[in-house]
Amino acid sequence: MGLTQETLAQVSGLSRSTINAVERQSIGNLSISKAEALLESIGLSMKVATSGTARAPSPKKAPPSRSALERAASTASVSYQPVMSARQLEAALLTGIAPRPVRPHLQVLLDEAPMSLLAKVVDELHADKGVERSHVWSQMRRLAHELQCFRTVWQ
Questions:
Q1: pLDDT of residue 116 exceeding 90
Q2: Are 139 and 95 in contact (CB under 8 A)?
Q3: Closest C-alpha among 66, 141, 71, 142 to residue 113
Q4: Residue boundaries of the structural domains of the chain
């Protein structure tokens, strides 16, 4: 994501020294709550499961879901007409250009959408378009600065 240790510490609520120790893989013991805070701040999550031999119930087949880009565009368009399309969002994230009609949508997305959704958008663009994740995060940061977003992660 291109975050400094200081920024990641502010976003996650951990100390910079803890972030540094995790990065260097020299931390002796990181509690589950700290690991969870760190992961959530960068759009990831952690699942803890028992290691017993009992078989877990098979999950129900979920209906096909919308792409991360479609969910993000929808999230950003809740209060605006016309809505921003997934294609418009993709173009903005790949080019770093925020066309006037979707500027408010992009600002809401970058300021208010869950980081986990933004991370899924980055992963989707990487998988579908072959764009480096760091490039997409960089474009998000550039757009956030241009749109004067207040979220700490973009500072």
A1: no
A2: yes
A3: 71
A4: 5-41, 68-154
Q: For 25-79, how does the pLDDT look when each residue is reduced to its tens digit (9 = 90+)?
A: 888 888 888 888 887 777 777 777 777 655 555 555 545 578 999 999 998 888 8
Residue 141 and residue 148 in contact, taking contact as beta carbons nearer than 8 Å:
no
Token pair 């993000």 in the structure block, residue: 72
The answer to whether the beta carbons of residues 30 and 6 sit under 8 Å apart is no
Tokens (6 digits) for 155: 């500072």
Supply the DSSP symbol for 152.
G
* 2 Rama class: left (phi>0) / alpha (psi -120 to 50) / beta: left
Q: Is the dihedral of CA 81, 82, 83, 89 positive or negative?
A: negative
